[in-house]
Design a protein that fits this description.
Blueprint (H helix, E strand, L loop, with lengths): L14 E2 L27 H17 L8 H15 L8 H7 L6 H7 L3 H27 L11 E3 L11 H21 L4 H19 L4 H14 L6 E3 L1 H11 L4 E2 L2 E6 L2 E7 L4 H5 L7 E7 L5 E2 L5 H8 L6 E7 L9 E6 L1 E2 L2 H4 L2 E9 L2 E9 L7 H5 L8 H14 L4 E5 L8 H9 L5 E8 L4 E6 L10 E5 L6 H11 L4 E4 L7 E7 L4 E10 L15 E2 L38 H12 L3 H17 L3 E3 L2 H25 L11 H9 L17 H17 L8
């Protein structure tokens, strides 16, 4: 995602693995279990930085908050949740002790006093050290006593669990967690001696890293608890993370192209960069957790419990080199780990640029041709434009060329495919909209003081006035939502697919004495006055999707700013599409009632939802193996049901590349791959074309694409 040219950031980037140069991992001295954690002390620079951050937040954030006891209480709760969301480290006595700070963190923040924050952080690090020391000792002394034929369970969802009142309670919890880790490795086919070696090394490495913590770690953790009380996209970057962020925003993309964040002790994939190596490889998905990293054929390095920047350092590497990742699927908590390989490469502008194709759809005895323009991101070559290069690339320039080429190819209608387009240049979203509407407002930006800036398309030319559909999904965000929302508000075309992400806030970067602050300072609003924030764009016709809205999207983020409305930018005239939607939906539902791909998505989603609802796992090996076999059989049955209905050969198992590519390319609106010439047609795209043809027939029998 890019800057808009007005220094406003449309999107949030955690860390994009798109950098060159593997950084050597410094050797960390081994810490003996039971070693007390050495408390960290805040620095003078952090006190100054804190006052700068609070001044920016209180005066410049979109949500005007006051520094008072209410905010202090919220910061404390957020900090404890960030540190120990699973209630697995702190004791109830710790939590009771921290209550002394509940109504006083506001005073400390105003003074730049970090002592309360460091007090809590130091206690947390001591508790981590104690827990890791416990499991290391268990592995050394009691590993032989772990039995996997008893009836015992582990609760995975502990967000609402009461805090342990005794160390013995935590010991029992961590004994079960250790047993579960051992069982997972057993199910993955590892020998007991290898399991002991791997886990001993994993926990020892984590213990070593705890004792290598620096003041900046404590400070960044606390300040991001403060910023998160304002909204999830306001963020403090330490000097180290500022450097990463700045390189990311300049799009110096060389690596695997993935956005990562820390979730508990794991590194989780947030999204993939369009056109990047991971996206093209098709073997890494949002919500996947990276638990191991290896360079080429070297040994896998276990990264559970590592800091995010350390994991990034391992995954970074030069172009054409290979990185292997051990991942856990985000679908099911008890998923078996698998290893994937990705060849690092640059993310070239050409591979992120708009592409066209023509799909043919049978319309009675006639074959209709629908043009499709796939836009992975909203891009512009700022440097080329500044240098007045005649052939500089941009989304609007490329789409203009592609539309003209498709019209020359005599297409009957046009689909703009924005699935998984996470946004980019605001300017390009406005200019692209201008290709399809006469001059007028496209988006409104409301600032923290209530001032509203209406951003307009000022070019009266309409490049394409024919039948139009915009295809979106849950990963369509920011600039994509602006374009889709404008098309919908003007009644210019149908919006089809899944409810979009809901990223409707604007961020800016502000320098600090130590690092940078990314702060939310404005919100986007549609022509109609509706915000794109939180709710996103709701399609005219919804497609089933495997995306879980409880886990992906703005509404899944804690303290996300709410959806609201302001005055419309223009009177929205009667929408010719609205009167036809009821009939269009009827035709669509009738068509997909026996469509194997749509049936597959619905049934697959129901199966995944059922698996996710299980918050307890058995620690009995026979039961776990039976459960895993049953899940595999059910998934295989769903896939073979789809294949039989389409006249395709059935699979003996899902444990092969053919099955993987089939699952990824079929039945899911989030997948768009070009792995082979024999790839099955995109069912969602074909149905979008059918809906467009329905609309054309209902509007005018002779309706067709036109300039």
């Amino acid at each position: 995602m890019k800057q808009t040219g007005t220094r406003l950031l449309i999107s949030v980037v955690t860390i994009i693995l798109a950098l060159a140069g593997v950084q050597a991992q410094a050797s960390i001295p081994e810490i003996k279990p039971g070693t007390p954690f050495t408390p960290l002390e805040p620095t003078r620079e952090e006190a100054i930085t804190t006052q700068q951050i609070m001044s920016n937040l209180l005066r410049g954030h979109y949500e005007r908050k006051r520094l008072n006891n209410a905010l202090s209480s919220e910061v404390l709760d957020t900090l404890l949740d960030d540190l120990d969301s699973t209630h697995s480290y702190f004791l109830a006595s710790d939590i009771k002790e921290f209550e002394q700070f509940r109504n006083h963190l506001d005073e400390a923040l105003s003074r730049g006093d970090m002592k309360p924050a460091f007090y809590i952080y130091n206690r947390f690090q001591q508790r981590i050290s104690e827990r890791l020391s416990f499991v290391i000792t268990e592995l050394e002394n009691n590993a032989a006593e772990f039995k996997f034929d008893t009836q015992e369970t582990l609760e995975l969802d502990r967000e609402e669990a009461p805090w342990a009142t005794t160390t013995a309670e935590l010991d029992n919890l961590w004994r079960k967690r250790l047993k579960n880790s051992m069982l997972n490795l057993r199910l993955a086919g590892k020998e007991d001696k290898d399991i002991l070696e791997l886990l001993s090394k994993r926990y020892q490495n984590q213990l070593n890293r705890v004792h290598q913590s620096r003041p900046v770690d404590a400070y960044q953790t606390f300040m991001n608890a403060v910023t998160r009380t304002f909204d999830p996209h306001t963020q403090y970057f330490s000097p180290r993370n500022s450097e990463n962020f700045n390189i990311n925003m300049s799009l110096s993309l060389q690596g695997i192209g993935a956005v990562l964040q820390t979730e508990d002790e794991h590194t989780k994939v947030v999204r993939l960069v369009p056109g990047g190596p991971a996206s093209k490889a098709g073997n890494l998905e949002p919500e996947d957790k990276i638990i191991g990293v290896a360079q080429g054929d070297e040994d896998m390095v276990d990264v559970i419990g590592w800091r995010l920047d350390e994991v990034v350092d391992l995954i970074r590497g030069p172009k054409s080199s290979t990185v292997r990742l051990e991942i856990l699927s985000g679908e099911v908590a008890t998923a078996e780990p698998k290893t994937i390989s990705i060849v690092r490469d640059e993310v070239k502008l050409e591979e992120q640029s708009a592409q066209k194709e023509v799909i043919e759809i049978q319309d009675g005895k006639e074959t209709r041709r629908i043009g499709v323009i796939d836009i992975p991101t909203f891009y512009i070559d700022f440097e080329g434009r500044m240098n007045n290069l005649p052939d500089y690339r941009s989304t609007t320039r490329d789409v203009r060329r592609l539309v003209n080429e498709l019209l020359d190819e005599k297409v009957d209608g046009l689909i703009i495919d924005l699935r998984s387009n996470g946004g980019g240049s605001l300017e390009e979203a406005i200019n692209l909209t201008g290709l399809f509407i006469p001059t007028g407002p496209v988006v409104q930006v409301r600032g923290a003081r209530g001032d509203v800036d209406v951003l307009r398309d000022r070019d009266p030319e309409v490049l394409y006035a024919g039948p139009l559909t915009v295809l979106v999904n849950r990963l369509s965000a920011s600039a994509s939502e602006i374009f889709a929302g404008a098309v919908q508000d003007y009644g210019r075309g149908l919006v089809i697919g899944g409810q979009t992400f809901g990223k409707g806030t604007v961020q800016s970067l502000r320098p600090l004495t130590e690092g940078q602050l990314k702060i939310t300072q404005a919100k986007f609003y549609r022509v109609s006055g509706d915000s794109t924030q939180n709710q996103g764009v709701i399609p005219d016709i919804m497609f089933p999707s495997l995306f879980d809205k409880e886990k992906i999207g703005e509404s899944a983020l804690e303290r996300a700013l709410p959806w609201d409305t302001i005055k419309p930018a223009r009177e929205v005239s009667s929408n010719p599409i609205r009167s036809k939607l009821s009939r269009l939906k009827e035709l669509h539902e009738a068509r997909i009632s026996d469509n194997p791909d749509f049936i597959f998505v619905r049934e697959q989603k129901a199966l995944v939802s059922e698996m996710r609802e299980k918050t307890q796992v058995s620690l009995n090996e026979a039961e776990r193996r039976a459960e895993r076999e049953e899940n595999d059989e059910r998934r295989l049955a769903l896939e073979n049901k789809r294949r039989k209905a389409k006249g395709l050969p059935v699979l003996a198992s899902l444990d092969n590349d053919e099955a993987d590519s089939t699952e990824k390319s079929e039945g899911a609106d989030e997948e768009k791959t070009d792995d082979s010439e024999e790839e099955e047609p995109d069912a969602m795209l074909i149905e979008a074309g059918n809906i467009l043809l329905d609309y054309m027939r209902m509007s005018s029998p002779g309706m067709t694409a036109q300039r």
